[in-house]
Amino acid sequence: MRRVSIFESLRYRNFRLFWSGQLISLIGSWIQNVAQGWLVLELTNSSFLLGLVNSIGSLPVLFFSIIAGVIIDRIRKRNLIIITQTSLTLLAFILGFLVSTGLVKIWHVIIIVFLVGLVNAFDMPARQSFVIELVGRESLMNAIALNSSIFNAARMIGPAIAGIMVSSVGVAGCFYINAISFIPVIISLFLINGEFRIERREISNSLIEDLKLGLKYLGSNREVFLIIIMVAVNSVFGMPYTVFMPVFARDVFKVGARGLGFLMASVGIGALIGALFVASISKYRKKGRILFIGIFFFSAFLIVFSLSRSYILGLLILILTGFFMIIFTATANTLVQTYTRDDMRGRVMSIYTTFFAGMTPLGSLQAGTVSSLWGAPVAILLGGTVNLVMAITVFIKFSSIKNL
Q1: In whole angstroms, what is the distance from residue 144 CA to residue 103 CA?
Q2: CA 390/CA 220 separation, integer angstroms
């Protein structure tokens, strides 16, 4: 296993700009994420509605990301990302205004969450497929891992800040901070230079025909298709555990909003370490093996966390959960992009995004339903078990993925 410089991709000027701009923005996003969950819980006192609101935010990703991928393959990704980031700025400010003026109702939150999801349906696949244009195929895994590192550094810093802010100045301030945090990434996008030509091998005047071409291409690429299916199952059964952190903080561990921030931050600590680890082994050829190690242990630690009733032990388990979670997701992202043609990347990554983030509604609804019947710990236990069974099944039946 040949190691490389952890920060190899930062030698590219455009990626440095993109990477540094996102760091501040992502911290703001995590601050809003925690504050939003706490706001919904205060407005409704319902773990089911907590899951439902999260589901509504992901519905647009489920229904619109695939069409978004066709558009992404037709236009310059940088211009599209500038539009999406500006839109997210405005939505964060509006939510902050509603809360600070005392006008906010649960239906306001639902509408704004839906609109954020609609913007993300375009923003997420555009940002992910833009990375390879900044660093090239050789440094792709390192760049994806470094992007994951700032995402999870933000996951570590943002919730801790949010926990303090929610308990001291309220949730409105969290939303305003998020609005301001988008400014650096927008500036960095304007500073990025390059032609960023649009790759087109198969041209059609119809969005539907282009979509069909993308689906046909993915269907012929067995390994990429199977990895996306793994991501889909993980999104439905594995990832919803974060939705119930407010419930664990308040009802299981009884540590309040401040404790919630540190629960979320623990996931971020583990994921940050995991991202840096992945960056350091980005030249390792058998990435499929790393993929399976990540999903096996992520699922196992979800099961262990669901059985924990100690706050300190829970924090330690979440660090390990975050570590293996990012090993799986970063490797899956890398493999999908590496084994996808350039002119199909927007469409394939939009399908990836549909299953990675768009399946969250199904995951949140199933987990929310189980939680309302038997409690949040059982919901996470069930999810981890299904995830583990899926991983073992794919590992045994589709050995070709191990050799990618």
Answers
A1: 40
A2: 22
3-state secondary structure 43-111: HHCCHHHHHHHHHHHHHHHHHHHHHHHHHHCCCCHHHHHHHHHHHHHHHHHHHHHHHHCCCCCHHHHHH
Two structure tokens written together for 197: 């030509």
- Which domains are assigned to the chain? 8-194+206-403 (1.20.1250.20)
Cβ-Cβ contacts under 8 Å for 104 (sequence gap 6 or more): 39, 43, 95, 98
Out of 91-95, 121-125, 164-168, least confident range: 164-168
Which position has the higher pLDDT, 266 or 91? Answer: 91
**Residue 230: exposure state from Cβ atoms within 10 A (0-12, 13-18, ≥19):** buried
Residue 249 main-chain phi, psi, to 5 deg: -65, -45
Q: In this structure, are residues 133 and 77 in contact, taking their beta carbons and an 8 Å threshold? A: yes
Q: Which of 370, 8, 31 is nearest to 39 (CA)?
A: 31
Stated pTM of the model: 0.77
Residue 400's Cβ-count burial label (10 Å; 0-12, 13-18, 19+) is exposed
Give residues with Cβ within 8 angstroms of 290, minimum separation 6. 278, 281, 284, 327, 331
Q: Is the pLDDT of residue 377 over 90?
A: no
Question: What is the distance between the alpha carbons of residues 56 and 42, in angstroms, rounded to a whole number?
Answer: 18
